[in-house]
Design goal:
Chitinase A, domain 3; alpha+beta; flat; 25 helices; four-stranded antiparallel beta sheet; five-stranded antiparallel beta sheet
Length: 645
């Protein structure tokens, strides 16, 4: 919603210039308006009608946030609303709604306003819940990959599919998965692991791969499925409860043929010292060849399964009690000893929710949320796809100059060239997958572009933003910039109203603030003896412990900075207890009677008043320029309605 009016007596337009939220404040709850109020004309500005419904909506939303009580009165508020409409009338006559700064700012606000309408909370929540359930369980799987480029031609796609299908058939007919993996799999790691990927959990693999792993039963072989890498099949070896994460420290001795030493002997010597009680962190700093962790006493970041090499991970998770350390073990990198620092079980759903939500919205699952949103939106449109036309070309580049219609949404047509421009830089997906994404994106974009037509709530809010931004542009032009550049006018206004800008009785003073009563009494005694503030601080403060702070300057009588009940007078005051930890003493060195302020001393206040003066004159001129006709019957009806509420 737009705050159309602001207080005429308690505003600061200088701040408004830098903060559009003083003019534009979004409220998400819209009150329903009766149909008859949408047809009743409340008033017109030069023949442009304003209806009851708009005034009611704005009045209901703003009445509780208007600062001045007098402006909550129906009549005053109505007058402010008329003034607002007059300003908008002039803004449009000046074509301020066509300038680039306004249009760019409005586009940004519109994008922000659209976002809540693009949320798909049900689909997102379902994916978050699914991710949490999968986080609680780990899958051990072996896989076979037949590589295929995302944009492969149909012949190559068929060839890859037949190869993966053949491999699966042999496994189902009794051949061991390991042996078939070594023959068919095009994943280089198959040479060392026979296709076994070890244990993994949610978010460890691309979502389509993860889905196949979690939806295939233990011992079964999955149906062939495709990712951006090619075609896969999985055999599920095991499923188990997730152990969470661990944090360990380690000592590593590298296998290094250039050094004349036996790494096994060296790690055994370190192990013997640890068993005797030597400090693990010290040994890591002195002996470990992993220099990055050695500086930290061997400490590694916490990790879950699938993050380290298999043998390292198995030892880490086998340690039971914090402080336990392993026997020496060997990996491809060298010899290691691990010490368990802490185990981290899987947090509960509420605690893990923010992290899961972020991963769902920003990871590969986000496309599923978008697809679900598109499927929901498309039901409201006359929507036709032409996927068969993809067969005309082997790649997306073939559509660069195509004017063939590939998609129609209502009366809007999308050509092959539109498809090319959307997908030309997408390298990790096939043409059909890009086309599906293209259709989803165009449906969502069409929905966004037409929200102000199809959604009344959005249309009203968006119009209020448009008006609010336009008012900001106009005020900046007619009031704020003028007042800031018109130094002569400001000076003249100040001189004409000088009596308004005066100082009350003031004192040139020193104020001491203490944390303890006995220190405050000591400070008061020293002030009465004429001691300087520097000398008092030396005597009262104790090294790094500060007991007294001083501030100096001029203050008016009644200033909120002075203790309650204090009256300005020369000399040293009594000790005022602000609270149990704050005691104040004041020394007034000189008193000043009431006097006029200089412009530099009160520039902000004068500027505020000068802007009000300019605006009042401007609004009077608008009333003379444009004809306002009020429908007095509808006005009285509304006034009676709201006076009873």
């Amino acid at each position: 919603m737009t705050v159309l009016f602001y207080s005429k007596s308690k505003r600061n337009p200088l701040k408004m210039r830098f903060n559009k939220l003083v003019i534009i404040i979004l409220l998400f709850a819209l009150n329903p308006v009766m149909a008859q109020d949408e047809k009743k004309i409340l008033f017109s500005v030069d023949g442009e009608d304003v209806y009851n419904a708009e005034f009611i909506r704005v009045y209901e939303k703003n009445k509780d946030i208007v600062v001045d009580d007098d402006q909550k009165d129906f009549e005053d508020y109505f007058n402010l609303f008329v003034d607002f409409k007059l300003k908008l009338k002039q803004a449009r006559e000046l074509s301020l709604d066509t300038i680039s700064s306004y249009r760019e700012e409005l586009a940004k606000y519109r994008e922000q306003l659209v976002q809540p309408y693009l949320q798909n909370p049900e689909a997102t929540e379902e994916l978050i819940r699914e991710a949490y359930e999968r986080t609680l369980q780990e899958v051990n799987a072996s896989h076979i990959l037949v590589r295929l480029e995302p944009d492969a031609i149909p012949a190559d796609t068929l060839k890859a599919f037949l190869k993966i299908t053949e491999a699966r058939a042999k496994i189902l007919n009794g051949a061991s998965f390991d042996s078939i993996a070594r023959i068919y799999s095009e994943d280089p790691s198959v040479k060392t692991n026979n296709g076994n990927l070890g244990y993994f959990s949610a978010f460890s693999m691309v979502y389509s791969f993860e889905n196949a792993a979690y939806t295939t039963e233990k011992g079964d072989v999955s149906e062939p499925f495709r990712t951006r890498f090619g075609y896969h099949i999985l055999k599920i070896n095991d499923k188990r409860e997730s152990p969470g994460e661990v944090q360990v420290a380690h000592i590593m001795i590298k296998k290094d043929s250039t050094v004349l030493r036996d790494p096994k002997d060296q790690i055994d010597q370190i192990y013997m010292k640890l068993e005797r009680g030597d400090d693990f962190a010290s040994m890591a700093r002195e002996q470990s060849d992993d220099l990055g962790s050695a500086r930290k006493g061997g400490v590694l970041p916490k990790f879950g399964t699938g993050r380290m090499i298999k043998s390292f991970e198995e030892v880490a998770f086998s340690l039971q009690a914090e402080g336990d350390f392993s026997e020496p073990f060997e990996t491809q990198y060298g010899w290691h000893i691990l010490k368990l620092l802490k185990k981290y079980p899987i947090p509960d759903y509420e605690e893990l929710y923010p992290k899961l939500e972020s991963k769902v919205k920003n990871g590969s699952r986000s496309s599923y949320v978008e697809r679900s949103l598109a499927e929901r939106i498309v039901k409201d449109y006359n929507y036709v796809t032409f996927k068969s036309k993809l067969q005309k070309h082997n790649s997306i580049e073939g559509f660069e100059q195509s004017e063939d219609t590939l998609l129609r949404i209502e009366e809007k047509y999308f050509t092959g060239r539109s498809f090319y421009l959307y997908g030309k830089d997408i390298k990790q997906k096939g043409m059909e997958e890009i086309y599906d994404d293209f259709c989803n994106k165009m449906v969502i974009n069409y929905y966004k572009e037409n929200l102000n037509v199809t959604n009344k709530e959005f249309a009203l809010t968006y119009q209020e933003y448009k008006d609010g931004l336009l008012l900001f542009e106009l005020l900046q032009r007619e009031i704020w910039k003028k007042s800031e550049t018109d130094s002569a006018g400001l000076q003249t206004f100040f001189e004409s109203n000088r009596s308004k800008y005066t100082w009350k009785k003031r004192g040139s003073l020193v104020m001491a603030s203490c944390t303890r009563l006995e220190k405050a009494e000591l400070v008061r005694s020293l002030l009465m003896q004429g001691e300087s503030t520097a000398s008092i601080k030396d005597k009262v403060n104790e090294g790094a412990t500060i007991h007294v702070l001083f501030s100096e300057g001029k203050l008016e009588e009644g200033s909120s900075k002075l203790p309650k009940g204090y009256v300005l007078k020369e000399g040293v005051s009594k000790v005022y207890e602000e609270n149990k930890d704050n005691f104040t003493i004041i020394r007034v060195d000189h008193l000043f009677g009431p006097q006029w302020k200089t412009l530099s001393e009160t520039r902000g206040e004068v500027m505020n008043d000068y802007q009000k003066y300019l605006e009042d004159n401007w609004v009077k001129a608008l009333h003379q320029k444009y004809q306002v006709k009020v429908n007095h019957k509808n006005y009285k009806e509304l006034k009676n309605r709201f006076s009873k509420s």
